[in-house]
Amino acid sequence: RYGSLYSSLFHVSDWVPTLCRGVARVPLPDDLDGVDQWDSLSHGIVTTRSDVPSAEEDQSELMLGAPRTEILHNIDYINSKTDDVFSHASHSVAALSAFIDGTLYKIILNEADSGMWYYPYSADAGVLEGAISSMLEGEPGQKMNESSYIFNLDDDPFEMVNLWERTPFQEVKTKLIAKICGYWENKMVDSLWVADVTGSEHSTMVAAYEANDNYITWWKGDVPTNLTSSFPISSLDSKGECPFYGFKGNTWQ
User: Fold this and answer.
1) Is 73 helix (H, G, I), strand (E, B) or coil?
2) 49-108 pLDDT per residue, tens
3) Contact (Cβ atoms closer than 8 angstroms) between residue 138 and residue 122
4) How far is CA 224 from the centre of its chain?
5) Which one of 19, 162, 192, 241 is least enclosed by Cβ atoms within 10 Å?
6) Residues facing 93 on adjacent strands
7) For residues 163 and 135, what is the distance between their CA atoms, to the nearest angstrom?
8) The dihedral of CA 64, 67, 73, 78: what is its sign?
9) What 8-state DSSP symbol labels residue 91?
10) Is residue 250 within 8 Å of 146, Cβ to Cβ?
């Protein structure tokens, strides 16, 4: 709607169904990763109470009626330091954002010292005012050995306060991990990643990349129809099962 603000989760994969099915009315397969958000963009998000939301309505309840309520950011079971699968599947890296009981949370598993966000000071009660900071424990300024994180993105959009060990958020942790496991067991496929390309193949790959408007594409002639993964999920010690059930975190670094 012209002049309105659309505050909801939106993934880049949503643009295809939103523009093709929503705007152009082009039929698309039902198994796309993206979500058609055109109706919500055009008319606003309708809550679970099936009424048109007002400006005064609570944002957390409004998001329960959003077309998309979660985004899987990544699941990486290949260790970039060894160019092989992780020796323990539970060391795999994963991240997801999702609404739990009307609040938007982000969970990150096994990601340490990336430098991509503020280092959380889990015991620093002075980071934020309000509900989160009142639940923090320990000595002020104490920096934990953290490799897994939960953030309340509604109250902590800069991801500064890690709630992973906080007692009130253990049920949230369980629900978020269950969502990641749903993707692991029902959606994830074998990675087709290959090691660094060198020599003449590297030049060919770069040329194909630049010719494709700097988007990653296949570079070895015709795209094969049946690629075989060098790193099948079945080679992990979890044998295809999600390794994060009962995951403790912050223990293997």
Assistant:
1) strand
2) 544 444 445 555 555 578 899 999 999 999 988 889 999 999 999 999 999 988 999 999
3) yes
4) 29
5) 192
6) 76
7) 9
8) positive
9) G
10) yes
Contacts of 69 (CB under 8 A, 6+ apart): 9, 63, 98, 99
- Which residue bears the tokens 């993206």? 34
The number of CA neighbours under 13 Å toward the Cβ of 117 is 19
Please choose, from the candidates 151, 127, 122, 160, the residue with its C-alpha nearest in 3D space to the C-alpha of residue 139.
122
Cα gap 60→44, rounded to integer Å: 15
State pTM to two decimals: 0.76
Query: Hey, which residues does 70 pair with through a beta bridge?
Result: 98
Q: Of all residues in the chain, what percent are helix, strand and coil, respectively (each to 5)?
A: 25, 15, 60
Name the residue with tokens 């939106």: 10
